[in-house]
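call fold(seq) -> C-alpha cells
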Amino acid sequence: MAMMARHQLIGLLLSIVPCQANIRGIHRLRIPFPQYAEGPTQGTTDEQELQAQIVAWNERNVFGGTAHSESPSAEENKNPLLVFKQYWMDKNNSDPNHEDNSTDSLERLLSRKVAYQASYFKMPTDVAVANRAGIDMFARRGIDLAHKCVWGKATAGAGSLGTKLGAVDFRGMPLSMKSSHTADHEDVEGLWTELFGGSKEAALWQQFEKAIYETVKKRMDVKLFLAGKSADVADSPSFQLLLEHRFWAYDSTRGGTGTWHRDLFPFDTHFANDEAWFDEVANKSQLNEASCYRGLFKADSANVFDPADPKVLMFTLVNNVLLTNVDSATSGSRLRDRETDRANQFRAVEGTGNMFRTGGDSMSGSGFTTKHVDYDVPFHAGPPGLGTFGKRGTRYFFQTKVLVLPNSC
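ret:
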C-alpha cells in the first residue's frame, strides 16, 4: 500500500514531457507550483521581499522549468555577497554520487529536486512580541545578552545562548519541553521564561511549535517521504517532530565566517545524554514502544538519511527575533545554487524565518562527527559578515533543527 501511495503521489507531483520513462537529468522534471507558493501576498514590505526571495529560489531550483545554474562572471566572483567558496572540510560537491544527470531513477531525481525547497515561516504574533520583550527585559537589567554567548561552537560564527528540546506528536500537538544536557555552559538564568512571556511560557511554546508543524506539513519532500511509509498521506500526513531549539546571536564586533555546510545532526548526541527524555516523548506520543528511537540514534545505528531507505528528514528553521543597527538585506541566511558557488541571500526580517532541508556533515564546524549525512540537501551558510550602519550591530535568532519521523519507526 505504501509503494502504491508513493507512485500515485509522484504522478500528482510531476507534470513532465510524455516520455518520462526516458527522462534524463534533474532539470527535465517539471513540478507544478503548489498553491501556497504562488507568491508574496501579505505582511510588511520586508516580509513580502523575503517571501519573494523564497519564491524566486524555488522557481530556480524546484518548481516549474528549472535550469542548470549559470557560472558566475569574473566580476561576480569578486563579490563575496554574490559568490563565495569557503566550505567546511572543502566538501563542495552537491552531487557526490553523480545522480542529477542520470536516467536510473525518476524517484531519486524527484527526491533530490524537492529537497531544495525553501519555506517561508511566520512566527505567531504573540510569540514574536514576547521574544523581543524578553530581550528588552534583560537590557533593562543591564544584561547584554551578546556578551553572555558561548562562542566558537558554530560553523557560521554565531554565539550560542541556550538550547531546548521539544517534540510534536502525530496529531500535531506539542509535547513537553526541557533544557538540553549538551548546552555549552550556557548560563543565562531565566532566558527561556523571559523570551516566552513568563506565565505565558507554555502556551507560547505551543503556538511556536504548532506553527513549525503546519509549515512542515505543506512541504513536497515531506509528502513524498511519508508516501513511502504509509498509504494515507495525501491530505492528512501523519508524522512526529523532534525539535532542537537554539537561541543565537551575531555581534558585528565578533565577525562571521559564512562557511557553506549541510549542518549538524544533534539528535544522537541528545539521545546518548538523556534516553529517559526520549522514552517520555514516546509515551506521550502513544508510540507502541520507545525502541524506535534507539534504533535511530544508538551508537551502532546506520545513516538515518540513507537514500535507499531514509528513516527521517531534517530541516533547519532560521527565525529572526531582533535586529539592532544591522543591514537586514545582507544579514540573513544563504543557500547555494545546486551546481555553482553562487550565493542566494535572504533578507533577515524580525518575526519571520526560512526553513530548508539539512543533514549533518560528516564532521561539522562545531567539531562534532556524525555518520548521519544527507547529500540531497542544499549547502547553506550564515552571512560572511554583519553589515551595520556605522556602529556595533546585533542579530538575535532562533535556529530550530526539525526532525520528521513517520508514524511508525
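The first helix runs from residue 2 to 13.
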